[in-house]
């Protein structure tokens, strides 16, 4: 799952660099890429927080 998500993010970044100068949808693509990165970061942080709380409760 992590490799798939990373591959999607890398492809989105590559497409945004290729298409951005020529497309009116470049802002939408960049917004979607930033949203995906923030969602991934929030997911990782929440996993770390849950891991720390479960360790302290044990």
Overview of the structural elements:
The protein is mainly alpha-helical and 58 residues long. The chain has one domain (2-57). Helices cover 86% and strands 0% of the residues. The chain has helices at residues 2-19, 26-57. Helix 1 (2-19) runs antiparallel to helix 2. The relative contact order is 0.11. The mean pLDDT is 77.
Which descriptors would you attach to this protein?
58 residues; mainly alpha; 2 helices; transmembrane helix; transmembrane; membrane
Concise description?
The protein is mainly α. It has helices at 2-19, 26-57.
User: How many beta-strand elements?
Assistant: 0
Structural class: mainly alpha
Helix % is over 70%
Order of helices and strands: HH
- Beta-strand portion reads under 5%
Low-confidence blocks of residues: none
Largest sheet: none
Tally of individual helices: 2
What characteristic shape results from the CA principal axes? elongated
Spatial gap, N to C terminus: 28 Å
Number of domains: 1
Mean pLDDT: 77
- Any idea what the radius of gyration is? 16 Å
Keywords: Membrane, Transmembrane, Transmembrane helix
Transmembrane segments: 26-49
How is the topology of this model organized?
Blueprint: H1 2-19, H2 26-57
Helix pairs in contact: 1-2
Keywords: Membrane, Transmembrane, Transmembrane helix
Transmembrane segments: 26-49
């Amino acid at each position: 799952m992590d490799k798939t998500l990373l591959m999607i993010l890398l492809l989105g970044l590559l497409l945004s660099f290729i298409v951005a100068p020529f497309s009116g949808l470049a802002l939408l693509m960049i917004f979607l890429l930033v949203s995906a990165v923030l969602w991934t970061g929030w997911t990782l942080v929440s996993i770390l927080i849950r891991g720390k709380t479960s360790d302290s409760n044990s």
